[in-house]
């Protein structure tokens, strides 16, 4: 066993985690489960307190982890602090960097620069081994060369000797417990071959399947490219639906997906969250010749516009009171970064529609602060709307109960983004409700009303 992994497992050294959100917290938890001590630093005192109290502050993360963290905290294997000096005093052997690299829907590196300015200033501790730094954040290709390496040069640190540096971006899908840090294939690459081999042993403490890139530059671009592929495929589903408005494209693409080498995609509201919609922008921003990436440019344009087109279709149908279900970008998570709900709601308000929002993961105050609209209760609040738009299939929404159905007194139209209520279609029709699943025939009639 390589010495770094051995020292971590013997608990003579620890890992440090920069950022205790979904990525950082799960890194801590998985290493702690293997007996490795971890210390996280985060600017949020709420997150720090939650880690130290063994309270999984990030909603939905406990289900994804699949194991209890309380005993790990009680054993001293998981701890957090707001003081970064505790991670830069030379006692931490391995650092995982898991800070956001986006802001307001665009690539943003200020947080990353701040962390690496601190890491570059680390003085050698009592260990004879140089610290290993593994970047887990998704980066714009070229970020390591343009931002990270100059910071180490500024502090006269020689990579491969004074510090080991590599990248291993995360692929986890936090709504599926089978797609975790342990099970998913992981790509990684270090500054040099020796660093890559050291990373292999440290990552191998937790990860079952590892794929070494020939360089850190190749490992850096993998995450953005794989998500850009998915971004194009999802957006193509929407473009086909726009091109064939009279065809049930959702069914067509379900049948297309029966071919062995094609994925199954469905039209709907635009992609959201940290990864997919940002990755195309990362690839474009880091490209030497971005003008060649016309497919990605058009993908970003279509994905940005689709939610507003859906809003215009609602207005084109004549609806004035709209209830929206779901603020999170994905079911059963409390993450609203790049949520497709936000541009949709904003367009409705611009067009003069009375719109309210419901999401069980957010308080009424949070909904107002994030989306700028009032909240309503589910299901009783449904009675005031003539149109209901179900964007996110949270667990609370999935089963349309009899009481919820009875609350649809004035509703004339339902747009179901994921098809979670398809089994109730006959009941909706019996009540005179025009029910559509995103991507079926004529789901976007009227979308050109008020087009800008």
Ends: how far apart?
A: 62 Å
Lateral arrangement of strands in the main beta sheet: 3-2-1-4-7-8-9-10
- Give the uncertain stretches in residue-range form: none
Rg, please?
A: 24 Å
For the biggest sheet, the summary is:
8 strands, mixed
How large is the share of residues in beta strands? 5-15%
Number of helices: 17
CATH class of the largest domain: Alpha Beta
Estimate the mean pLDDT confidence. Answer: 91
Instruction: Estimate the global geometry from the Cα principal axes.
Output: globular
**What percent of the residues sit in helical stretches (DSSP H or I)?**
25-40%
- The CATH superfamily of the largest domain turns out to be NAD(P)-binding Rossmann-like Domain
Classify the secondary structure makeup into a structural class: alpha/beta
Multimeric status of the protein: single chain
| CATH architectural name of the largest domain | 3-Layer(aba) Sandwich
Question: How many extended strands?
Answer: 15
Number of domains: 2
Q: What is the CATH topology assignment of the largest domain? A: Rossmann fold
The gist of it:
The chain has helices at about 5-10, 20-35, 45-50, 60-65, 70-75, 110-120, 145-155, 195-205, 215-245, 250-255, 275-285, 295-315, 340-350, 365-370, 395-400, 400-405, 425-430; strands at about 15-20, 40, 80, 90-95, 100-105, 105, 130-135, 165, 185-190, 210, 320-325, 355-360, 385-390, 415, 435.
């Amino acid at each position: 066993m390589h010495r770094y992994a051995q020292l971590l497992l013997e608990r003579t050294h620890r890992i440090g985690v920069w950022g205790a959100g979904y990525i950082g917290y799960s890194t801590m938890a998985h290493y702690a489960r293997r007996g490795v001590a971890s210390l996280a630093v985060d600017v949020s005192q709420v997150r720090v307190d939650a880690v130290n109290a063994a309270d999984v502050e990030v909603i939905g993360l406990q289900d994804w982890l699949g194991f209890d963290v309380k005993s790990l905290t009680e054993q001293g294997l998981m701890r957090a602090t707001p003081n970064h000096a505790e991670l830069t005093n030379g006692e931490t052997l391995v650092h995982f960097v898991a800070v956001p690299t986006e802001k307001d829907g665009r690539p943003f590196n200020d947080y990353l620069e701040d962390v690496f300015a601190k890491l570059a200033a680390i003085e050698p501790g009592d260990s004879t081994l140089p610290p290993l730094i593994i970047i887990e954040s998704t980066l714009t290709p070229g970020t390591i060369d343009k931002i990270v390496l100059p910071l180490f040069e500024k502090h006269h640190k020689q990579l491969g000797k004074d510090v080991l540096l590599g990248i291993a971006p995360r692929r986890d899908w936090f709504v599926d417990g089978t797609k975790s840090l342990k099970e998913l294939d992981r790509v990684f690459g270090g500054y040099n071959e020796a660093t890559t081999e050291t990373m292999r042993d440290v990552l191998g403490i937790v990860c079952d399947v590892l794929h070494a890139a020939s360089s850190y530059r190749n490992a850096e671009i993998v995450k953005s490219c794989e998500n850009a592929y998915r971004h194009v495929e999802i957006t193509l589903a929407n473009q086909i639906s726009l091109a064939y408005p009279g065809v049930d494209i959702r069914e067509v693409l379900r049948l297309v997906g029966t071919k062995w080498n094609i994925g199954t995609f469905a039209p709907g509201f635009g992609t959201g969250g940290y990864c997919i919609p940002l990755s195309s922008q990362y690839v474009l921003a880091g490209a030497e010749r971005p003008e060649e990436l016309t497919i990605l440019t058009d993908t970003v344009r279509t994905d940005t516009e689709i939610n507003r087109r859906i809003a215009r279709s609602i207005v084109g149908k004549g609806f004035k009171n709209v209830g929206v279900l779901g603020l999170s970008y994905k079911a059963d998570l409390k993450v609203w970064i790049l949520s497709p709900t936000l541009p949709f709601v904003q367009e409705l308000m611009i067009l003069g529609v009375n719109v309210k929002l419901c999401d069980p993961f957010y308080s009424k105050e949070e909904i107002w602060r994030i989306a700028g609209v009032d909240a309503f209760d589910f299901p009783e609040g449904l009675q005031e709307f003539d149109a209901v738009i179900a964007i996110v299939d949270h667990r609370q929404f999935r089963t349309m109960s009899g009481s919820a159905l009875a609350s649809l007194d004035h509703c004339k139209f339902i747009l179901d983004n994921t098809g979670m209520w398809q089994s109730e279609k006959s009941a909706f029709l019996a009540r005179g409700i025009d029910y559509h699943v995103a991507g079926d025939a004529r789901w976007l009639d009227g979308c050109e009303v008020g087009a800008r």
